[in-house]
Structures are given as C-alpha cells and as structure tokens.
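Hello Y.,

Per our agreement to keep a running log of every chain we model this quarter, I'm adding this entry. I've kept the format consistent with earlier entries: sequence first, then predicted structure.
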Amino acid sequence: MGTYTGPTKTNDISNASMPELFSGLIADAKDIAVGHLGKMRGEIGDEFKGLKSFLLKVALAVGLGVLGAILLSHAFALALAALGLPLWGGYLISAVIFVSVGVFVLKRLPGDTKDIDLVPESAIAGLKRDMTEVKDDARYVRHQVRTE
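Predicted structure for the entry above:
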C-alpha cells in the first residue's frame, strides 16, 4: 500500500516549479488511492464472506425451523383430535398457535448485521486521513514557496 511519507529531498522541492509540485502532489495522491483501493478490496471481500456465512446460517435455520414446526404442529393437531376435537379444529388451532409463535420469534430476533454492510469503513478512513496529510503538506510547501 502506498503511503505518503512527506518530502524526502527538500532541495528538490524548494527548486521545483509550481507545475512540478502539483504533478508530484497528484502522483502522491494517486499512489495513496491505489494503495487504499487494495485495502478496500480486501475489506469488502471479508465482508462478503461474513454475509455469505450469515445467509447460510439463516437458510439452514429457516429450513430446520420450518420442518420442525410442520412436524410439531401436525403432532399437536393430532393430539387435540385425540382429545375429542374434530380433526379440522385441531389443525386450525395448531396453525394459529404456531403462526403466532413464528411471528413473535421473528420480531424478537436480534439484527446482528453490523459486520455485513459491505462498506470498507477502515480503508475509507485511512484514505481520508492520508489525503488530509497530502493537502496539509501541499499548503505548507505553497507557503514556503511564497515566503522565499
């Protein structure tokens, strides 16, 4: 990753023309951006892995939950029918109960999605920090050139 380290040869900078200074500034900014782009790609890749893992867990949980709910509600409906209710009444009561439980559980689930937003916050913050340093250094050099 390219990181701006400041001017290395003060004699070259003090003798450089304004176009050369701006050219150097643009080259430094480009190097910094390219370096941070690689970091952003890595961070987005990690977040995609987290998203993939989260979606796999959700799909597995939903599949097993649906299968379990079907079997449990079927058994509950048959138990109600064995107690003397009509078979359709047992299934109706069972469906209402298990749909209500499902809605309640769905509303109570935590939203643990903070790490899967796919925005590389760390890389963007580093890029902003480095660009601020380049801007400050450019102002300093411009001030030095004016005072001489």
